[in-house]
Amino acid sequence: MSKRFFLITLPRSGGTAVQRMLDATPGVACCGETGSMLERVCAMESVVEGMPGGWRVGAVPVVDLAAPEGVCYGVRSSYLGREGWSKAVARWSWLLRRWPDAVIVFVTREVDDGAEITLSMTWNLWIPSFAKCAGRLWKRWREMRQSMLDFREMNPGRVAILPMEKLGDFEAVAGVLAAVGIPLAWEAWEQVNASRPGERRAAVAELVAVEKAAKLSPVPNPFDGDRDPFAAVGNETDGSDDPFEAEDAARDPFPAPIKPARRHRRQPPRPFIEMAAEVPRAIVYPWLSTAAVWQELRHSLRSVAEHFEDKECPIFILGDAPPPWLRPGGRVQWRAIQGYAPERHGQPLNRRAGMWQATVTGVQLAEEVCWMNDDIYFLRATRWEDLRVALTEGRLERKVGEMLASTNVWRRGLARAVCDLLDERPLRPVWRFATHTPYLFEREKSLAILRTYRLSYKGSWVTLYHNHHNTPHEPCAPHKVNRLPATAAARFLNHSNYTLTEDLKGKLEALFPTPAPWEAT
Amino acid sequence: MKVVIYTHPPDYVAAALAARAWRSLGVSPVLAVHRSDPLPVVEGCEVIRTAAPRRGNLNGLAFLREHLRILREHAEGEWVFKADSDTLCFRLDWCRGIEADAVGLGDVGMRAFWGFCYAVRPAFLDTLIAAADKGAPAEEEDLAIGLLTASLGRLHTYKPLTPGCPLAGFAWSVERSAEEWKGLVDAMCFQRGPERSHRAVADKMREFL
Predict the structure, then answer these.
(1) Which range has the worst mean pLDDT, A438-447, A449-458, B19-28, B97-106?
(2) pLDDT at A44
């Protein structure tokens, strides 16, 4: 059994879990995060190297980690080795040289979206020095990981790599540790594996605890002033050594810290009434007559009549009043939504309530629903199958902070949906599905969303639905236009109230001149 | 026998891989690290500090003198080797039974002596040190040793790019498996270039181990 070990953990890689597993194992003791302690000891002991008389590193030890007899003692740090390869190899070599009976265990994780997301969500809270690191944090993180792999290559007998991806497999974890003489008890692993420190809600609790501790007893930045290793430090590697350089250049910079007043706290889903589907398939339009500025709905429906292949499925308009030109009893049916209905002074009772009711009702009307809006038009032949690949406009998780602080209620609602998705399925990308194009919803999947999330505003439904269910998707750009004439590849037109100019109205009238069968006048 | 490998931080991993190959042949690696560089710990290697400036690529009289003294200090057995971080040695056949004071890759028409992998007789080092203390015929360490050996002793060189030449540089553009390469040469240099990073070199070396 090894006498000493150093647990050097890549940030957000399960280091807390490994430390607790080891500390709970009989005969093993592993202290929690020691911050910059090892850095400082290394710095103190390195001072003697410059002294005259032939003094060398390690000649006069400043610190001796004396462990009780028979105890395998470990020190954990996620700080030692962050400053690029040269300093990493110097620090880690110092550990092995200074304590010849010690081994090093690196806890790492894959370079993937999950790693980036968790770093971008937490960096400003748990490591003060990273506040100055900003957009280079990702590059530093990857450098540290690569340094770990390289150092192990140099010392395979005294260095072990424990990937986060293996932490859920006791045999794998115990095997890696046993190879360097560190025991691990199954009970200790099981207990920590069940609680998963750092993951999901534990991660949130961890952030809150760190914040509270910082307020109660602020810890001075261990890397003050020009000794901050992350402040404008030159690159350790030239561009040709960094295979991710081009990819990094295309990434957004890390967001500013989220102000506490704008934090989102997840709410439970609202109770709702389950209804049986009336038909196998339907097209649904939520529609508020008082919000119409022209005859958008009429022309949108004409585009459905002309281009949507399914000529039989019913079309439901859910709103406050039927359109005046609608012939009753036909394919297009109007259903009242209480929240949209005029009350007393002719105002909608509650627009948000109306949106909620329309959503709950609309997604349950049929087993499959094509969700439309009066500002969306089909431009060419479309089948149900064509809607199974959803359209996206980039990713959202790194914009949460600014969206939560936005004055736009739509953006804030979308941000809350993103936060809930990250909470429900952590470390996965969140795509922007709210593209103002036709959406396809399946009833059973919709029910799953209603039972899991609380809807905040309009844009959140499609975001929650498609991200939660991992709908296949592709970029929206070639498929949607916002002006006419459209490009050859465009399948849909979408406009806003501002872009619905007289010119566009004329073009829409020319594009869809023929009244649909359900128009009375 | 020992091999002295000069290295610096970007090449520490490659040096560790090279050292692993030398150890498999029973040759003990000595990593020479400049005093301005971080001191690494590399399994199975003795690590020493050097002081003389390397002037970009092991150049200069001061470096040559220090290098020869380091070779003498670590000379054991039949030969003492010098190799680069990016050089893998698969076999020692290239120096076995050679009646010479130094052996390596060289060609009068191209370059007298290449320094990525060569061997020197321990007994000849005093002669080289005495000559270097008086001056050097070239700035580069490998060229200086080759020229000094040729004039003061016996130099055996393999002509590059000839059939049967056991020392070669890895041809990045040639499609050939590692096993095929190892069947053709005894030692190979995976030279870094403008298009090839330190990491690419280490990755390629790993394929051969």
Answers:
(1) A449-458
(2) 75
Cα gap A303→A516, rounded to integer Å? 9
ipTM of predicted assembly, 2 dp: 0.91
CB contact under 8 A, B41 and A86: no
Q: Which residues, in sequence order, are CB contacts of A30 under 8 Å at separation 6+? A: A5, A7, A19, A22, A23, A73, A74, A75, A76
**Residue B41, helix vs strand vs coil:** coil
pTM of the model: 0.62
Contact call for residues A446 and A274 (beta carbons, < 8 A): no
Higher confidence at residue A237 or residue A90?
A90
pLDDT of A228: 34
Nearest residue of A to residue B199, measured between CA atoms: A241
The Cα A298–Cα A322 span in angstroms is 12
Task: List helix spans (H) across A51-160.
Answer: 85-98, 113-126, 137-154
Q: How many residues does this entry show for chain A?
A: 521
The pLDDT tens digits for A300-310 are 999 999 999 99
Spatial neighbors of B184 by CB under 8 A, at least 6 apart, are: B168
CB B192 within 8 A of CB B7: no
Chain A residues with at least one Cβ partner in B under 8 Å: 57, 85-87, 89-90, 92-93, 96-97, 150, 153-158, 237-238, 240-241, 243
Task: Tell whether the model's pLDDT for residue A349 goes beyond 60.
Answer: no
* Candidate from A97, A154, A158 with C-beta closest to B12: A154
How far is residue A465's CA from residue A188's CA, in Å, rounded to a whole number?
Answer: 38
B193 CB contacts (<8 Å, ≥6 apart)? B172
Return all residues near A127 (Cβ < 8 A) that are at least 6 apart.
A11
Q: Hey, how many other C-beta atoms are within 10 angstroms of the C-beta on B171? A: 11
Q: What are phi and psi for residue A358, nearest 5 degrees?
A: -60, -40
User: What is the phi/psi pair of residue A141, to 5°?
Assistant: -65, -45
Cα–Cα separations (whole angstroms), residue A340 to A50, A322, A343, B30: 79, 12, 9, 82
